[in-house]
Design goal:
By secondary structure, this protein is an alpha+beta fold. The chain is globular. The protein has a 6-stranded antiparallel sheet. Strands 16, 18, 20, 21, 22 and 24 form a 6-stranded antiparallel sheet that branches. A 3-stranded antiparallel sheet has the order 7-9-10. Helices cover 21% and strands 24% of the residues. The chain folds into 3 domains: 84 residues, Phosphorylase Kinase, domain 1 (2-Layer Sandwich), CATH 3.30.200.20; 215 residues, Transferase(Phosphotransferase) domain 1 (Transferase(Phosphotransferase), domain 1), CATH 1.10.510.10; 163 residues, Sandwich (Jelly Rolls).
């Protein structure tokens, strides 16, 4: 098959490396030349494009997913055709598939398995609300990003409930390891079919193995039709009865006995670890994910996330004991960011109070995506200020940064940031002089911290010694490992 690496589709998407391939298409990591970002591009094989049914199924995937907007669904960005090659453009996700994660880790910790299952259930619920059924829910089609957030992908055989034709009754599509009885028999497929598959995925996350094995795909499918998914506690006794009951209900052979929708299943999952035989479990065993949309990043096959396990993801998790709830507030006076330090008061930052800082000997410091700097103070974790893209994975200069301006000088005690590209190195500086983007780097700034390797949610204690400053700079000196840019999703300042 002819490689497309190095080519640019529609004068915009430069295909840089291959992520994966299947019978119908191949997925590339690509650089969006227009918006200077990385994306994933799924290109239909030319020989498949001549098949009208396959071509329509491919186009339908774009239409189906483009109407879905959810933090746990990989977003469709664009679609088009170049030289007879149809393609779909998706956000890129930095991480690995759930299947790879299970192979790497074996049985997942109970809170992690529940958290991922609940996220997938919410994603499926959002799709079903738009009358879209995935039809191929499996851990290979779930990506786990750098922040341990599950994102459902590959709606390649998805079908709208009001659509007839390509995947009509009598034709089985999907992976039989996770297939619902009705789909295996070629009967009507509904949202409950997806929830059955999710129940099997949850079983696999908790046990590290599939409930059924056979000599052929047909043999496995028939076990789903005639059998009952084994009790997960027979393989893993420490699973709470309430959680085992979720799997039992989700995988009921009759669709009517399953959960009515993804939201109901997600709610049951999140309650399952709170109560075990009437006893409240320890707080560190109960988590609920705060929805957040990951900014575009690079998918690196086999990327290891060992350094970012559940305990390290506390900034994106909420301890949910006793029915307590937490809401992230965004905008004006209530914009304080997650994990507000005790007794600290947020410093209000206006929507135009952030600027890129890129001093060098040739000038032009504001070229470092300065027009996007406001995205770091807009109160939305879904948006981000990006550095420019460095194709050799190194800055090649002392550093770049972004600074915030306060209405009046303030003795700030803490700067906190959220990023979807953890791992870059940064230091915080301050000054009262209006920054000159063409000045020698940091000549007018006072260092307030040592350099640190930034986590997804990073706090900097500022050594101001009570001195008031008006400008606070986040100075980036090294990019995240394996990435060509860094993102700053939000900056918060406290006094």
């Amino acid at each position: 098959m002819t490689t497309l690496l190095g080519t640019t589709l529609s004068g915009r998407y430069r295909l840089e490396s291959r992520i994966g391939s299947g019978g119908m298409s191949i997925v590339y990591r690509a650089h969006d030349e227009t918006l200077d970002r990385f994306v994933a591009v799924k290109v239909l094989h030319r020989e498949v494009a001549s098949d009208s049914a396959a071509l329509e199924r491919f186009r339908r995937e774009a239409r189906a997913v483009a109407r879905l907007s959810h933090p746990n669904i990989v977003q469709v960005i664009d679609a088009g055709e170049d030289d007879g090659r149809p393609y779909i453009v998706f956000e890129c996700v930095d991480g690995e598939t759930l299947k790879e994660h299970i192979r790497e880790q074996g049985r997942l910790a109970l809170p992690e398995a529940v958290r991922h299952a609940a996220a997938i259930a919410r994603a499926l619920g959002a799709a079903h609300a738009q009358q879209v059924v995935h039809r191929d829910v499996k851990p290979q089609n779930v990506l786990i990003d750098a922040d341990d957030t599950a994102k459902v992908t590959d709606f390649g055989i998805a079908r709208t409930l009001d659509e007839e034709g390509l995947t009509a009754d009598g034709r089985v599509l999907g992976t039989t390891d996770y297939v619902s009885p009705e789909q295996a028999l070629g009967h009507e497929v509904t949202g409950q079919s997806d929830l059955y598959a999710l129940g099997v995925v949850l079983y696999e996350m908790l046990t590290g193995e599939l409930p059924y094995r056979g000599d052929s795909q047909v043999a496995v499918a028939m076990q789903h039709v005639r059998g009952t998914v084994p009790d997960v506690r027979a393989t893993r006794p420490e699973v709470p009865p309430a959680l085992a009951a979720v799997i039992k209900r989700a995988t009921a052979r009759q669709p009517a006995r399953r959960y009515p929708d993804g939201a109901a299943m997600a709610a049951e999952l999140e309650r399952a670890l709170v109560v075990d035989d009437g006893q409240e479990r320890d707080d560190d065993m109960v988590t609920a994910q705060i929805p957040a949309v990951a900014a575009p990043a690079i998918l690196r096959p086999g990327h290891s996330r060992r350094r970012r396990r559940l305990a390290a993801g506390a900034a994106t998790a909420l301890i949910a004991a006793g029915g307590a709830a937490a809401v992230l507030l965004a905008g004006s006076a209530s914009r304080q960011g997650p994990g507000r330090p005790s007794g600290a008061a947020p410093v209000e930052l206006c929507s135009t109070c952030a600027s890129a800082y890129n001093p060098d000997s040739t000038g032009g410091g504001t070229a470092q995506n300065n027009g996007l700097a406001h995205l770091a103070v807009d109160g939305k974790l879904a948006t981000a200020w990006p550095t420019q893209t460095y194709y050799d994975y190194t800055l090649g200069k002392p550093g770049v940064g972004i600074y915030v301006r306060t209405a009046a000088p303030v003795a700030a005690t803490e700067l906190r940031l959220d990023t979807r590209t953890p791992g870059f190195h940064a230091t915080v500086y301050a000054t009262n002089q209006s920054p000159d983007p063409n000045s020698f780097p940091l000549s007018d700034w006072t260092a307030l911290t040592q350099s640190v390797t930034v986590r997804s949610s990073q706090s900097f204690a500022l050594a101001t010694a009570g001195r008031h400053y008006r400008y606070y700079l986040l100075w980036i000196t090294a990019l995240p490992p394996g990435l060509r840019y860094a993102l700053v999703n939000e900056i918060y300042l406290f006094r």
